[in-house]
């Protein structure tokens, strides 16, 4: 299709008046002007706004815009809790709080609409599918700020913590970030001079441990950057080791550099032997624990581990003796739940691709940390592999009966989803049920489409507001063969 001419009114930088009709996946709203679709951010359905055109889509068929003024506000609008991300206060607001201008209940209503639309459009579910009509994105807590236990900061050229405007590499210094957990906010990270570092990943665990990982620019000495930042940490927080704070310094990863060329990592403070944090969760009166290393994956909302494990357990209704595959297992959150439910006569296979996180998972079960009385003797195998590659390897053994066929499969892939090949492999495994935990409803929609073509149907569906004030949403779907 040839490129359509761009109407003069829709040239980048022009300001137009829009009234959005519906919410789109990805944090924008769909409006129409000059016979074109405009994806406009920082607004709400039905309100009248003036918006600046910020970009042109493929073949000039659609456009992007940011609200600059509200002419007729939505009843769901509120003052944005953080000026740097407020489109009415900034020409290019910081990303990461794109729904902050909307009441939390309305944010959840929008996310509900997005999950429904993705499952209809990409998953092929009929619009009157009862579970879609009944779906309501559920709040995890009353508080919509202070939930991020993991925050990734950029570092500005002047060496201060910074964040990026939406879809931009520009770094803008920040004094504070209200989505960050209170413990991280109290550190006042903006006081540190991080010259020589390019990124800071800050974590606080459910046990109160703090891990600050500094990626040091390849041109800098890790040792000298570590010394300067460690000195400042001592001045800012006193005896930071006693406060369970660990500083970890690692050379920035740049593609193409061989292992031997990298400078060694350095760790200072509480966990100076190995930079990890401990996460914990109460389960039936006992306590499950997981070690998660620097760069390893853990859910970022404090209530997410409890809500997700309870939902997956409720949907699967596992019995003693079952075999479960936990694919994209991370450090073993669902593995631990499944191991407790299936007991010594069952088994769990956990497949995780990241070197750090799969090593964490292996150790969490080998050491017994992630086991309770009921799972003390459950055979748990942790495999570091790409999920598709591992399933390809073991499918012949499962088919011949040399390896146990799983009765239940748990899938919790990253944002891109599992994809057609993995969904076909899961179908070949022939479990009686599959639970899919999705952080992207579009990926869930696509993978639902593949599963439905193979005769599976969604038989339970829930969604959680695990990322308040952003457009992100977590969905959990149970699939059973029709
Ligand atoms: C959303 S996390 C879920 C982890 C875990 N279920 C939890 O809740 O803590 C997804 C995990 O999948 C891993 N992953 C992503 N793509 C993968 C792949 N192709 N094969 C194996 N693991 C992968 C990531 O490293 C990450 O740990």
Automatic annotation (TrEMBL):
<feature type="binding site">
    <location>
        <position position="412"/>
    </location>
    <ligand>
        <name>S-adenosyl-L-methionine</name>
    </ligand>
</feature>
<comment type="similarity">
    <text>Belongs to the class I-like SAM-binding methyltransferase superfamily. RNA M5U methyltransferase family.</text>
</comment>
<feature type="domain" description="TRAM">
    <location>
        <begin position="9"/>
        <end position="69"/>
    </location>
</feature>
<dbReference type="GO" id="GO:0070475">
    <property type="term" value="P:rRNA base methylation"/>
</dbReference>
<feature type="binding site">
    <location>
        <position position="352"/>
    </location>
    <ligand>
        <name>S-adenosyl-L-methionine</name>
    </ligand>
</feature>
<dbReference type="InterPro" id="IPR010280">
    <property type="entry name" value="U5_MeTrfase_fam"/>
</dbReference>
<dbReference type="GO" id="GO:0070041">
    <property type="term" value="F:rRNA (uridine-C5-)-methyltransferase activity"/>
</dbReference>
<keyword id="KW-0949">S-adenosyl-L-methionine</keyword>
<feature type="region of interest" description="Disordered">
    <location>
        <begin position="254"/>
        <end position="280"/>
    </location>
</feature>
<protein>
    <submittedName>
        <fullName>SAM-dependent methyltransferase</fullName>
    </submittedName>
</protein>
<dbReference type="Pfam" id="PF05958">
    <property type="entry name" value="tRNA_U5-meth_tr"/>
</dbReference>
<dbReference type="InterPro" id="IPR002792">
    <property type="entry name" value="TRAM_dom"/>
</dbReference>
<keyword id="KW-0489">Methyltransferase</keyword>
<keyword id="KW-0808">Transferase</keyword>
<dbReference type="InterPro" id="IPR012340">
    <property type="entry name" value="NA-bd_OB-fold"/>
</dbReference>
<feature type="binding site">
    <location>
        <position position="328"/>
    </location>
    <ligand>
        <name>S-adenosyl-L-methionine</name>
    </ligand>
</feature>
<dbReference type="InterPro" id="IPR029063">
    <property type="entry name" value="SAM-dependent_MTases_sf"/>
</dbReference>
<feature type="active site" description="Nucleophile">
    <location>
        <position position="439"/>
    </location>
</feature>
<feature type="binding site">
    <location>
        <position position="299"/>
    </location>
    <ligand>
        <name>S-adenosyl-L-methionine</name>
    </ligand>
</feature>
């Amino acid at each position: 299709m040839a490129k359509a001419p761009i109407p003069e009114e829709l040239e980048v930088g022009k300001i137009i008046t829009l009234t959005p009709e519906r919410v789109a996946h990805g944090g924008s709203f769909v409006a129409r002007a000059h016979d074109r679709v405009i994806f406009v951010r920082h607004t709400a359905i039905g309100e009248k706004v003036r918006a600046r055109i910020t970009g042109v889509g493929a073949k000039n068929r659609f456009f992007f815009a940011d609200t600059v003024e509200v002419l007729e506000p939505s009843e769901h609008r509120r003052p944005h809790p953080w000026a740097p991300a407020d489109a009415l206060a900034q020409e290019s607001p910081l990303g990461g709080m794109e729904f902050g201008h909307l009441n939390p209940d309305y944010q959840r209503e929008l996310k509900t609409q997005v999950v429904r639309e993705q499952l209809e459009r990409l998953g092929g579910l009929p619009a009157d599918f009862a579970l879609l009509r009944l779906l309501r994105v559920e709040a995890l807590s009353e508080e919509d700020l202070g939930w991020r236990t993991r925050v990734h900061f950029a570092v500005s050229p002047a060496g201060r913590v910074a964040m990026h405007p939406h879809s931009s590499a520009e770094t803008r210094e920040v004094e504070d970030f209200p989505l960050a957990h209170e413990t991280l906010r109290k550190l006042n990270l903006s006081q540190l001079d991080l010259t020589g570092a390019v990124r800071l990943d800050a974590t606080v665990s459910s046990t109160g441990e703090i891990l600050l990982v500094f990626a040091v620019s390849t041109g800098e000495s890790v040792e000298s950057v570590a010394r300067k930042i460690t000195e400042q940490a001592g001045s800012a927080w006193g005896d930071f080791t006693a406060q369970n704070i660990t500083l970890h310094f690692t050379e920035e990863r740049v593609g193409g550099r061989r292992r031997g060329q990298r400078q060694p990592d350095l760790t200072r403070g509480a966990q100076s032997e190995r930079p990890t944090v401990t996460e914990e969760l109460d389960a039936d009166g006992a306590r499950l624990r997981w070690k998660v290393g620097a760069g390893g994956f853990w859910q970022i909302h404090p209530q997410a581990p409890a809500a997700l494990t309870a939902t997956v357990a409720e949907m699967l209704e596992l019995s003693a003796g079952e075999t479960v595959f936990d694919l994209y297992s991370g450090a073993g959150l669902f593995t631990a739940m499944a191991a407790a439910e299936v007991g010594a006569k069952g088994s769990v296979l956990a497949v995780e691709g990241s070197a750090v996180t799969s090593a964490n998972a292996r150790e969490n079960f080998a050491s017994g940390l992630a086991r309770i009385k009921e799972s003390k003797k459950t055979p748990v195998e942790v495999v570091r592999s790409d999920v598709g590659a591992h399933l390809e390897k073991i499918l012949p053994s499962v088919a011949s009966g040399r390896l146990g066929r799983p009765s239940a499969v748990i899938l919790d892939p990253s944002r891109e989803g599992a994809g057609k090949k993995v969904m076909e492999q899961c179908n070949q495994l022939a479990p009686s049920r599959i639970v899919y935990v999705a952080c992207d409803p579009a990926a869930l929609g696509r993978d639902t489409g593949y599963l439905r073509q193979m005769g599976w149907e969604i038989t339970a569906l829930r969604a959680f507001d695990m990322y308040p004030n952003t457009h992100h949403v977590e969905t959990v779907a149970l699939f059973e063969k029709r």
